[in-house]
Design goal:
The complex is a heterodimer of chains A (234) and B (292). Chain A has ten helices and ten strands. Chain A has 234 residues and is of the alpha/beta class. In chain A, helix 3 runs parallel beside helix 6. Chain A is globular and about 50 Å long. By secondary structure, chain B is mainly alpha-helical. The longest helix of chain B has 31 residues. Chain B is globular and about 65 Å long. Chain B starts with a helix and ends in a 14-residue tail after the last helix. Classes of the chains: A alpha/beta (234), B mainly alpha (292). At the A-B interface, helix 2 and helix 3 of A face helix 6 and helix 7 of B. Bound molecules: adenosine-5'-diphosphate and magnesium ion. The site of magnesium ion has 4 residues of chain A, from helix 1.
Chain lengths: 234, 292
């Protein structure tokens, strides 16, 4: 389980997160939703070690992960799929995947790669092709696959639906759901696209200007009209 | 016509050395976005180390190996000198720092080994090979130079395509953030890149030494040609560095042969200017998608 406690992050005078507390149990999908600039990416980047928090901490199964280096955090079991294109276009599909678990034993890496290919068959077909030949949806699968290659206990997904067609978004979010159900990974999903995200999440967290305004079961958040109007803009 | 072909043949081994030096520049540029002008200073320093070993032991091969080890160590030291104080500055500060290191290395060599040009012993037969009833403008030693270069280029391409450290180096160069998120210790990988460039530059120095002399500044001209080749090749591209390095060797040989050798640097600079005007990303470079 990933536990985030009172996390506060500032960029100079700009306070991007303020006292954020979230629990992400294993096998569940927790969706953090909020408008552009709410602090969603900051939360993810802080958890992955790319940003140092001013206060608060996060633990994975009791072990503190905050204020550690990204390369150590991923080894501890927290993998981030950052916002935007997080594959390396100049590398092949196979190389992008291999990169995700480069520090692991070769045999462990092989096992995980087979699992990733099970989950994303298209990646197996396109193994030898350069990542920049993939479609947007395929590339997002590759990005998730790269993160899974570290065999994480917790997966952080920053707006995986960004720039993808609605059908592809649904497909990818379904795969994320399946992943949580089948592998018991704790998934923290960040989305601007609240409707789709809440439909497949267990828990919803609404973030606004760096503060949590509501936490609850995803269906309850989805049907809360006041929340929707106030923070999600639809 | 015969002389034209002879000049081309005679330029190949020189081109091989330029290619190696260009590779060293490209290795560091790709990883850190720094053009390491100190590279020739490092190569010159390690060549003097090799000369000392060669004088003491008489073994050319041992001298080469010691120079390679020294090149790796010196590469790490130079990275530390150039990049540590520049942490927060942009890379143009670091590039200026490499000039400082070059001057410091030249001064150090002058103090340790003296400022005069010294001869580097010829390890193999340097006379033109005789075959098909004539003497060719290429010696056994030229074949050694070309052979060592080919071996090194093959070893490097295997390193980059077949090994974990090679993949880590490419990933760290292309996208350091994704590399770190994947668990790659990027700063260590970059240091390895500086060491590797040091090794390649050291080999270039030892290979070229017998054909010139060694003094604190002899290799400066090599920097001009290697930099030209690296930039025209696209700075990001190892293939470009090799191809343009050899090409530069041929052009220099032709220009020197047909006019006089003093014109070669001028021709290099003209080519460089033309290339920057017509193909700013280099013949083998890609603006967005960088080549392997
Ligand atoms: N590197 C940065 N430096 C300064 N301010 C930043 C930086 N990154 C984000 N911010 C600011 O922090 C706030 C939250 O940004 P972000 O976490 O990217 O939000 P979201 O992902 O929800 O759109 C915004 O006001 C943004 O302008
Ligand atoms: Mg964001």
């Amino acid at each position: 389980m990933l536990s985030i406690t009172d996390l506060t992050v500032s960029y100079g005078p700009v306070e991007a997160l303020n006292g954020v507390t979230i629990s992400v149990p294993r096998g569940e999908v927790t969706a953090v939703i909020g408008a552009n600039g709410a602090g969603k990416s900051t939360l993810m980047r802080t958890l992955a070690g790319l940003v140092t928090p001013a206060a608060g901490q996060a633990t994975l199964d009791g072990e503190i992960i905050t204020r550690k280096r990204p390369e150590d955090i991923v080894r501890m079991g927290v993998a981030l799929v950052p916002e935007g294109r997080s594959t390396i276009p100049e590398l092949t599909v196979e190389e992008n995947l291999r990169l995700g678990g480069l520090w692991r034993q070769k045999s462990d890496r092989r096992t995980t790669q087979a699992e990733v290919f099970d989950l994303f068959p298209v990646l197996a077909e396109r193994q030898r092709m350069r990542a920049d030949t993939l479609s947007g949806g395929e590339r997002q699968q590759l990005a998730i696959g790269r993160a899974l290659m570290s065999n994480p206990k917790c997966l952080l997904l920053d707006e995986p639906s960004l720039g993808l067609a609605p059908l592809i978004v649904t497909q990818i979010l379904h795969l994320v759901r399946r992943l949580a159900d089948e592998t018991r990974i704790a998934v923290l999903l960040v989305e601007q696209n609240a409707v789709t995200a809440l439909r497949m999440a267990d828990t919803g967290v609404v973030l606004n200007l760096g503060r949590i305004v509501q936490t609850g079961p995803a269906p309850a958040i989805a049907s809360d009209e006041k929340l929707r109007h106030a923070y999600l803009g639809y | 016509m015969t002389s034209f072909i002879d000049y081309l043949i005679g330029g190949v081994s020189n081109g091989a050395v330029i290619a190696l030096m260009a590779i060293a520049l490209v290795l560091i540029w790709r990883a850190t976005r720094v053009v390491n002008f100190a590279q020739v200073g490092q190569a010159m320093f390690t060549t003097f180390v090799a000369l000392t070993v060669q004088t003491l032991t008489g073994s050319w091969a041992l001298a080469l190996v010691v120079a390679m080890v020294a090149g790796a160590i010196l590469g790490v030291i130079v990275q530390f000198l150039v990049l540590r104080p520049m942490r927060r500055a942009d890379t143009s500060g670091a590039i200026i720092a490499t000039f400082g290191v070059l001057i410091a290395l030249q001064a150090a060599v002058g103090m340790i080994w003296g400022g005069d040009a010294q001869a580097y012993p010829q390890p193999f037969d340097n006379a033109g090979v005789v075959a098909f009833g004539r003497i060719w403008p290429i010696s056994v030693y030229d074949f050694v130079v070309i052979g060592v270069t080919i071996l090194l280029v093959i070893a490097l391409s295997l390193l980059f395509t077949r090994t974990s450290i090679g993949l880590a180096m490419r990933a760290s160069a292309f996208n350091p953030e994704v590399a770190r998120l994947s668990g790659v210790r990027v700063s260590r990988v970059l240091t390895f890149g500086w060491a590797l460039a040091g090794v390649v530059g050291a080999v270039a120095g030892v290979l070229v030494a017998p054909s010139s002399t060694v003094s604190p500044t002899t290799f400066d001209i090599l920097l001009v040609f290697a930099f030209t080749a690296a930039v025209i090749g696209g700075l990001d591209s190892l293939v470009g560095a090799v191809a343009l390095g050899v090409f530069a060797g041929l052009v220099i040989s032709l220009v020197s042969g047909l006019s006089n050798s003093g014109n070669a640097p001028v021709v290099a600079l003209v080519l460089l200017a033309l290339s920057l005007i017509t193909k700013p990303d280099g013949v083998f470079g890609h603006h967005k998608a960088r080549a392997v």
